[in-house]
Specification:
The complex is a heterodimer of chains A (about 90) and B (about 290). Chain A is mostly beta strands and about 90 residues long. Chain A has a single domain, classed as Sandwich (ATP Synthase, domain 1), CATH 2.60.15.10. In chain A, strands 1, 2, 3, 4, 5, 6, 7 and 8 form an eight-stranded mixed sheet that branches. Chain A is globular, with a radius of gyration of 12 Å. Chain B is α/β, with parallel strands linked by helices and about 290 residues long. Chain B has a single domain, classed as ATP synthase, F1 complex, gamma subunit (Pyruvate Kinase, Chain: A, domain 1, 3-Layer(aba) Sandwich), CATH 3.40.1380. Helix content of chain B is about 65%, strand content about 15%. Chain B has a five-stranded mixed sheet, with helices on both faces. In chain B, β1, α3 and β2 form a beta-alpha-beta unit. The two termini of chain B are about 30 Å apart. About 0% of the residues of chain B have low confidence. Classes of the chains: A mainly beta (about 90), B alpha/beta (about 290). β5 of chain A pairs parallel with β6 of chain B, so a sheet runs across the interface.
């Protein structure tokens, strides 16, 4: 299955850059699942957990990142999470 | 003429100075590399932020209900200068140039009949503003880079700036910092933080932004990004400043080390001359003493 490039960026560093099949980000209006070829979107985020399913939903969660204060910039090929703090949990 | 012992002491002390300056140069070089890496690491975030904000701002600026951080308060009477310098000296003209830049800006604004207030980062900036106009100093931050400079520190500054803005203490905010060009060139730079200056050529990108969907809404995203952008810009400024400071210190200490070397050469020459003159003098005394017999 195709993948989208997930990047988690803070002002201090690039936390993560990885090809994933699905990522769920905590949007301000509710969680947002991003798969490849997602419509271009910019959404603000609430403080919460970014859940990464690198091998698809059925293969289960592969990583979680606690993020706060930021937004997400989605294009069909990439998903960029820009936030003030990001920590693997 | 100085005695041999004096000269010897003098040479010894210059040698010690040279040791110190060359050690400081090494330390500055190591710190410079780290500062540059840090500035490099922060770039992707700032770039993305700029791109998104520019396209949002270009379309929102014309709206009557645009946020104040973007459109301004409608007046330009009260100015706030955020002046960032180093805590320490011994870095050439680094601090002096920044302070001069800020003071020039201050005089320009005062000449136009506007009021100026200061928020300072760094001990040198604080002291300079205190000397010139103590009443204008609203808040000062020192020791920002101890143990190391991070985003939270920049947020402290931006929180203060935003608090002042909400309270209506100023209309326009300018950040004065030193842009890092190379280890020997640092450029004191003014950057307008509030109201947000839409970069040139923003119209060109707004065409592509039309296809974006915004959640919850364009206005809400913009409203949350604008304050965040202040922190990001201040953080970027502080990072550049940090790299500039170390660069300035490195070249200042390099010069000092070289000068100390030259001084040692000169003093050693003088020392040897004096020593020979003394030997010659003693010989003449002995010879003339022997002749007198």
């Amino acid at each position: 299955m195709s993948t989208t490039t997930l990047e988690i960026v803070t002002p201090e560093r690039l936390v993560l850059s990885e090809a994933v099949e699905l990522v769920v980000v905590p949007g301000a209006d509710g969680d947002l699942g991003v798969r490849p070829r997602h419509a271009p979107t910019i959404a603000s985020l609430r403080d919460g957990v970014v859940r990464i399913f690198a091998k698809g939903l059925s293969a289960g969660e592969t990583a979680r990142y606690q993020v706060s204060g930021g937004f997400v910039d989605v294009t069909p090929e990439t998903c960029r999470v820009l936030c003030e703090h990001a920590e693997a949990v | 003429m100085a005695s041999l012992k004096d000269l010897k002491n003098r040479i010894g002390s210059v040698k010690n100075t040279r040791k110190i300056t060359s050690a400081m140069k090494m330390v500055a070089a190591a710190k410079l590399r780290r500062a540059q890496e840090q500035a490099e690491a922060g770039r992707p975030f700032a770039e993305r932020m700029d791109a998104v904000l520019a396209s949002l701002a270009a379309s929102a600026a014309s709206n009557p209900g645009a946020p104040k951080l973007l459109a301004g308060t409608g007046s330009e009477q009260k100015h706030l200068i955020v002046l960032a310098t180093a805590d320490r000296g011994l870095c050439g003209g680094f601090n002096a140039y920044l302070i001069k830049e800020a003071m020039t800006l201050r005089s320009e604004l005062l000449a136009e009949g506007k009021s100026v207030q200061f928020v300072t980062v760094g001990r040198k900036a604080r002291d300079a503003v205190r000397r010139v106009d103590e009443a204008a100093l609203v808040e000062s931050f020192i020791e920002m880079d101890r143990p190391n400079l991070n985003y939270d520190k920049a947020q402290e500054v931006s929180a203060k700036v935003l608090e002042l803005f909400e309270a209506g203490a100023f209309d326009v905010c300018t950040l004065v910092y030193s842009r890092f060009q190379s280890a020997i060139a640092q450029i004191p730079t003014r950057q307008q933080l509030i109201p947000f200056a839409v970069p040139e050529g923003a119209e060109a990108t707004s065409g592509s932004s039309a296809v974006y969907e915004y959640e919850p809404s364009e206005e809400a995203v913009l409203a949350s990004l604008l304050p965040q952008n202040i922190s990001v810009q201040i953080f970027k400024g502080l990072l550049e400043n940090q790299a500039s400071e170390q660069g300035a210190r490195m070249s200042a200490m390099d010069n000092a080390t070289r000068n100390a070397g030259e001084m040692i050469d000169k003093l050693t020459l003088l020392y040897n001359r004096t020593r020979q003159a003394q030997i010659t003098k003693e010989l003449i005394e002995i010879v003339s003493g022997a002749e007198a017999l």
